[in-house]
Amino acid sequence: MKRGGFLAIAGPSGSGKTTLLNIIGGLDLPDDGYIRVDGNALEKMNPSQLADLRLYNVGFVFQSYNLIPVFSAIENVEFGMLLQKVPIKERRERSRAILDDVGLAGMYHRRPSELSGGQQQRVAVARAIVGNPSIVLADEPTANLDSKTGKGLLELMCKMNETKMVTFIFSTHDNMVMDYARRLVLLRDGIIVGDKKKS
Question: Model confidence over 176-197: pLDDT tens digits?
Fold first, then answer.
């Protein structure tokens, strides 16, 4: 897909959606074939190069959140920027702004155990997009959200997609995500069985 795409991958459980996202993000490598992300041949990159690609180019929203339990919400959001060596003042300002954008103003210092599942999901989304990656991979990003919050998050992602040309790739069962997507790929048993672009 071209840069700036807004793609949803749909299909039944076990069809390969999460595996595909993990391969695109360099978390897993394909058994065969090749994959190109931002011009990089992932199957030829060493672990350090893949880590740098993930740190600077790819944002992840995991289905299980993968928040650091001893960190507060704002510390979880800041963590990638800490690794990127972004100055502390800028890290804090960007983290507060993005948490406000996802509806978590005033909850900066709560740990994951003090947040609902939907709130943890919003922290995960904030963490994925705060570092301005070129690609965001989101595994069922609206799964634990009510429809109003899910719609708000999708609109935030649409805005980033349109204003910053961030590429979004979602795996989803959510019809709302499929409606927002400009391209819908259907998977079944690891095989593409449908690929529809919307005008």
Answer: 999 999 999 999 998 999 999 9
What's the CATH code of the domain at 121? 3.40.50.300
What was the pLDDT predicted at 30? Answer: 84
Burial of 181 (0-12, 13-18, 19+ CB in 10 A): buried
> Does residue 1 fall inside a structural domain?
no
| Tokens found for residue 29 | 């490598």
Tell me which residue range forms the domain holding 177: 6-197
Provide the pairing of β-strand 40-41 with 36-37: antiparallel
The total domain count for the chain is 1
Residues 6+ apart with CB under 8 A from 117: 144
Q: Determine the average pLDDT of the residues in 18-47.
A: 89
